[in-house]
Amino acid sequence: MSRFFSQKFASLIPYTPGEQPRDRRYIKLNTNESPFPPSPLAQRLARQEAGDLQLYSDPACAVLVQTAAEYFGVEPDELIFTNGSDDILNFAMMAFCDADHPAAFPDVTYGFYPVLAGLNGVPFEEFPLREDFTIRPEDYIGAGATIFLANPNAPTGIALPLSDVERIIASNPDNVVVVDEAYVDFGGESCLGLIKKYDNLLVTRTFSKSRSLAGGRLGFGMGNRDLIRDLNTLRYSANPYCVNRMTMMAGVGAILDEAYFRFCCGGIVKTREETAEKLKTLGFEMTDSAANFLFIRHPRVGGMELYRFLYEKGILIRHFETPRLKDYNRVSVGSEEEMRSLTEALAELLGEKA
Length: 354
Ligand SMILES: *Cc1c(COP(=O)(O)O)cnc(C)c1O
Known about the structure:
alpha/beta, seven-stranded mixed β-sheet, 10 helices
C-alpha cells in the first residue's frame, strides 16, 4: 500500500478471479465460461464495427437496448447495459444501499457481493444456507435490507423456486431486491415477469455465460423505469461509455441468433446431466445444479487434494478454501471432450487410492 492510498480502502479485500495461468494449455473448468465460441452473427457484427472504433460508442446503447427490449418483452426504459454484470451489481450497491439500507445475502454465494459492499462502505448481513446448501426464504421475509440473491445460486447451482423469490420481493416493499440471474438460462425459473408488478425488483443478467461473451464484458439489468433511471444516473456519472462498440454489436448478434443460443444452452445442459451421472457412478456427491457447473465432493478425497491432482493433469477447477466449502469444488461444464478428460482423470485418481 502506498502512503497515498485512501484510508477508507485500507481494509478492502479485493475479489479473487479464477486463475488464468499461461504456462501451459489447461482445460479450463474454473470460471464458468462457455465451451462454445460466440455466435457467428455476433462475431461478424463485432468485426464490422471494428472499422468505426475511432468513434465513441453510443452511451445510450440504443440499438442494443431496442433489440433486447423486444426480445425480453420489456420497455426500453426498463433496461440498462453495463460492462459485465459485475458493473451493474456495483451500481446497485452504490444506488440502493447505505447505513439505513444494509445489504443482505447468503453466506455462501457469489463472492463479489461482500467485496462490492466493502468497496462502497455498505454494512451487510450474511444469512447461512441450510446444511444442504439451500436458501432459507424465511430469513429474507421482511428483512429490511437490500437483498442480493443469485438464482440459481453460485457456487452451489441450486435454484430457488419462483414462488419463494416472489414472497421475498413482496415482503420487502421498502427495499430493492436484486435477483442475479447470471445462470438462469441453464435451468432456474426467471422472475423477469414480476418487474411490472413490483417496483423494488431489479433482475440482472450477463452475456458471459450462456451467450459466450465473457471476454466482451456485457451485462444488463431490468426493472422498474425509476430504478433504471437511478442506475443510469450513476452509470453516466462514472463511465458513460462503459459498453464499447464491438461488444455492443456482438450483443445484438448474440440476441438475434436465437437458434445458436438454444443450441449452446441445450448442449451444456445435456453435458451437465451426463457428467453428473458419470461422477455419481465414481462416488461423487453433488448438489442439484441448474447452472453451467457442478458443485461436487467425494467422501474419500479432500477438496484441495482433488483440485491439486487435476491441476497437475492440466485441468483447472475452482476451489474455495473456506470452512463450509473446503470439501467441495466447482467444476464448469465444458465440452463433451473436456468432460471426458475430467472423468477419466478422476477415475484414475480414485483407482490409485483404492
Ligand atoms: C459470472 C457471474 C456474474 C457476472 O459476470 P460478468 O462477467 O461480470 O457479467 C454475476 N453473478 C454471478 C453469480 C456470476 O457467477
